[in-house]
Amino acid sequence: MEDTFLFVVLTLDAMLRVATPLILCAMAGLFSERSGIVDISLEGKMLVAAFTSATVAALTGSPWLALFAGVSMATMMSLIHGFACITHNGNQVVSGVAINIIASGLTAVLGNAWFHRGGQTPSLPSEARFMPIELPFAEAAGSIPIIGTIYKEMISGHNGLVYVAIAMVLITWWVIYRTRFGLRLRAVGENPQAVDTAGISVAWLRYRAVLICGLLTGIAGTYLAIAQNASFVRDMTAGQGYIALAALIFGKWKPWHALGACLMFGLLDAVAIRMQGVSVQLIGEMPVQLIQTMPYILTVVLLAGFIGKAIAPKAIGIPYVKER
Amino acid sequence: MKFLLKVVAVGAMLLTTFGASAAEFKPAVVFDMGGKFDKSFNQSVFAGVEKFRKETGIKYREFEVTNETQREQALRKMAQRGHSPIIGVGFAQAPAIKDIATEYPDLKFAIIDSVVDLPNVQSYIFKEQEGSYLVGVLAAMASKTGKVGYIGGMDIPMIRAFGCGYEQGARMANPNIEVIHNMTGSTPSAWNDPGRGSELSKGQFDRGVDVIYAAAGGTGVGVYQAAKDSGKLAIGVDSNQNHLHPGTMLTSMLKRVDVAAYNTFKSAMDGTWKAGIYNLGLKEDGVGWALDEHNRALITPAMEAKVEQIRADIIAGKIAVHDYRTDNKCPK
Q: Fewest CB within a 10 Å sphere: which of A248, A268, B254, B277?
């Protein structure tokens, strides 16, 4: 019983670690898509941020400078996306794909040219990374049954960016639903003409949305490169940007729902990792391949039966033109 | 018109001379997914061909496969350009090597980690189970919890053979040991996923494991990092990876693909190249374990003596290490 409980808590602990980049990316996508800009370039921006932060951390040894650099580069990519889609009314999907391809190629080429390690950056020492933080009283609380164990094993001992990600969901909810900016942002994604008629600049609103999107993907990428891992590896995002996008749609473009979807993906991944090689009663040892497809099978099942219709912001993907 | 003909004739002559000089000695190598700097398997081959280049001054052409469809294209391009010998790195290149070696019977090919039975192909395979057996012994002796872990890359019989040899060795050193096996994935991206490697390791540490052996290419980087962060021990693979994190790298299972690659180039240059299947084990020094200044402090004299004894026993045939690939089973 004790063991099972600890197993569950440790799995949830792993869930938080795995879900962090997904949560950050999903919130990033939420800002962008709620304003009417489709963003499939989450993946690319995250990759650029991961590379930049790993590079800066390797050169300067400071995780804070690295975070700043990662966020700046991701924001710049965001601005390129915005420039193509908002200023020039370009196709948002095409621009997003282009950014993904640029990111994948550029990071590998620059990494190879600068470090001569096939696109990898040098391994970072602990000082140059975001390391786990022990929350106060974690050690002492560990002796209290159940609550203490949960506090010590699951809540304490993550690196700072994990807590940032959770806080970001709350902030996103507050900004989107409780501020004037949020109201306008939602409006511009549903009916930009109305916003324009009210005398508010559609372009400026959307630019602010993609800037926030860049900021959040920058944090996500930094987390991957210098908190979860200790170096950049070619294509290290491994499709997580797309999973985050799926979680966003899964969560009907709402912060708490999206958080739930991200945590679900994280949990399934964490369970899949721990289920490997363990014999299950009646079934026996499950094959690796089956375990690894589980998250995706479940996604299809949930989407088909339980989630209901996901309704996208009405003006999503349509460039805003004042007059036809 | 005559002038034109002359030009054409001269041009043709020039071309033939170029062709002749180009046919001298042009070795090539095609690395596999993971890339030549994976700090492991591909990098070991890279070290081998680099050694050849430094010694002889002969340049080789190389290609890094980043996508499954590129393997055959890359090998074909090398063959069209008249490169010989061409080394295909990794089992996944075997089908492509087979096709292209049939089409270009005059060129020499080599395949590492698989067998292609053609008169112009050298096949290098290794008895990974024997080397893994040795590091398994070390892992069991170093473990304080009585639990050791194994993390493989892509789920294929060869990678299972690593884990199986490791488990046999661990059991031999400590019959009560518990060995936990994990595979990173079932697609080639499993060779280059350090994030997942790190997560898998943390999962094993949570279950009480304190020594992990990773045979997973670039994914291993994440495993070794996680071991360092948690203060646990890890065992490297293919290349000597002890230097990555001195103090937490217990040892490395060496697979001398560098020697295989070097010998292919060298023998082809000297004219002693021979096609056939080379199955390299402890006896041929094709596999082994690494002891250097980075892990000296972790290996006690008792461990060293025991593992050397077992090594001698395997070479003498007193200990038979089961190969997973023969029956797709691992004896318990």
A: B277
